[in-house]
Amino acid sequence: MKVLWLTNYPLPRFSDKIGKKSIVNEGWLVGLSEFLRNQKGSSVIFCTCSPKFKGIYKIIDDNSTYYGIEDANPNKYNK
């Protein structure tokens, strides 16, 4: 199973790897992400955008890949 998951917050596993503080520490987001990571034959890509990222981060961790992409204009859609 291949999954591409776009999240609105960096997951704790990714935040830890890049040295950022995680704002998501529990709940369905973390639980479901760990469930998917532990499925045999699964390949999961997590992607999130944030103004806190400068450039693009890519972390490969077991059967998961994490991307953090800079959001250069975070207020564009907040009007």
Protein described:
- By secondary structure, this protein is of the alpha/beta class.
- It is built from two helices and four strands; from the N terminus they run E-H-H-E-E-E.
- It has a four-stranded mixed beta sheet with strand order 1-2-4-3, covered by helices on one side.
- Strand 3 and strand 4 form a beta hairpin.
- The protein is globular.
- The mean pLDDT is 85.
Short description:
With 79 residues, this protein is α/β, with parallel strands linked by helices. It contains 2 helices and 4 strands; from the N terminus they run E-H-H-E-E-E.
Order of helices and strands: EHHEEE
Largest sheet, spatial ordering of strands: 1-2-4-3
Estimated helix fraction: 10-25%
* Oligomerization: single chain
- Number of strand segments: 4
- Count of separate DSSP helical elements: 2
User: Percent of residues in beta strands?
Assistant: 25-35%
First and last CA, distance: 38 Å
Low-confidence stretches: none
Computed structural class? alpha/beta
Radius of gyration: 13 Å
- Whole-number mean pLDDT: 85
Shape: globular
Biggest sheet statistics: 4 strands, mixed
Entry keywords:
single chain; 79 residues; alpha/beta; 4-stranded mixed β-sheet
Secondary structure layout plus pairing:
Blueprint: E1 2-7, H1 12-18, H2 28-37, E2 43-50, E3 56-61, E4 64-70
Parallel strand pairs: 1-2, 2-4
Antiparallel strand pairs: 3-4
